[in-house]
Amino acid sequence: CEESDELRGKIISYNIETKETSEFATGLRNAVFMTKHPVDGNIWLTEMGRDGLGDNIPPDEINVIDINFKGVPNFGWPICYGANIHDTEFDDRTYIRNPCMEPFEIPPVVSLQAHVAPLGLSFIPEEGWPDNLWFDLLVAEHGSWNRSAPVGYKIEKIDLNSRGEFLGVTDFITGWLTPKGEKLGRPADIKVMPGGVIYITDDMSGVIYKVVRMEIAG
Length: 218
Hints:
This protein is mainly beta. The protein is 0% helix and 35% strand.
């Protein structure tokens, strides 16, 4: 859609002292949750892609706002999705240059499976966690609602190196979606706490899970 409200599809910065607002990032269809990287302070956010293109496109995304970026970063919505792909089904205008090329659109840092509906995200801190997990990112996947075979309904771990560069995606907590497709819950937000405790909200079951890390001798 073409956004009719100038505040939609954006992150707005609000100055508490002056009461003034300004655009902080644009081109975001449905970025509900944000968190700061504990080392460099960059802002990571989950982003849900649009519907209507089938089971496998467009990918859901994890985007990063570089706090040193000059200007207002644009992540492509509504005319671009994924890694600089022009949505010609929606936007059939003719351009001299591809409007989804960098620097016009900033591609996602991580492309997730389409329709997993990523929401809350939280970095694993140093305190209480083994060093091979430090600063990896946990993402709550709320789960699909209009895909022929449901996906998501789990917590995924985004594996990152010491520089915050993407290495891969692995399952971290599963079980809210049975092999037969029965939905037992929908993780919404996740907070990883120092000391090894994780809190997960589930807005389908109306509960908060407390996950405690335990070391097993053996």
